[in-house]
Amino acid sequence: xxxxxxxxxxxxxxxxxxxxxxxxxxxxxxxxxxxxxxxxxxxxxxxxxxxxxxxxxxxxxxxxxxxxxxxxxxxxxxxxxxxxxxxxxxxxxxxxxxxxxxxxxxxxxxxxxxxxxxxxxxxxxx
Length: 126
Hints:
Layout lengths: L2 E5 L3 E3 L4 E9 L5 E8 L6 E6 L6 E3 L7 E6 L5 E6 L8 E10 L12 E2 L3 E6 L1
Parallel strand pairs: 2-11
Antiparallel strand pairs: 1-3, 3-8, 4-5, 4-9, 5-6, 7-8, 9-10, 9-11
């Protein structure tokens, strides 16, 4: 069992930066591919970024490439980050982190993940 807790979301002006964190309060995530998803009001939850268990492979949705960076603290084996730069109002959403079963590759699909956090709100003002 893995319990995930996101933090770092807040109100920020367009062009600003935020770093979201996803910590495992129970279990370890060191062997799990991890993902970040987001859901804006009235819209479906969508893939944002993913990282493999060893951190060697990453994937991003097109609209965040070059602005967002996913990383993980494998030394501590408990935390994944999403660095978000050059934020835009359209990045406003609740951001969720998610974990796959151990030793699987990255996935861009919601159904590929087995554990989810409660989400953290990111609001970008224009």
